[in-house]
Amino acid sequence: MLDVVAGGASIGFLYPLERAAAVRWWRGQVSAVREGRLAVRVVRDGERVVGTVGLAFADKPNARHRAEIVKLMVHRDARGRGLGRALLTAAEEAAAEAGVTLLLLDTETGSPAETLYRSSGWSETGVVPGHAADPGGTLRPTTFFHKHLGTAPGKHAGRDHGPVPAAV
Questions:
Q1: Which residue range(s) make up the domain with 91?
Q2: Which residues have CB under 8 Å from 167's CB, separation 6+?
Q3: Residue 132: which CATH number?
């Protein structure tokens, strides 16, 4: 997370991100994982985590068919090896296994992540100008994407049972 923010990725934090703040954020996710509201996938290079992605499940009864891809991060030293695509695919597969039929995500407009999402079959929903600040604090536009999995739009599906496995 520290490296991704230092590299300019807009993932909700400003630069410089202090290690203690990042650790607090990750520890704050533990209850969501335990309760099945968040699934986290990681890629390791030995003992070192070089990539992560989160899958945040909706908790409202009318939204159990959807989830959001959050915090897709790959360390700068590990880029160019297909890890972002592998993490995105793992999150999509976990969503499908959980009965999710609609995925959502957002990213800074013009970021390299946009290319990944488009080439992975995601559809642009729209752009919101000045939606979020980049790590330097400048407001930037955000592009929202969606992807349908499995069941056709309009048919009810979704998570009507217990939590999904938290991490692999």
A1: 2-148
A2: 33, 39, 40, 41, 42
A3: 3.40.630.30
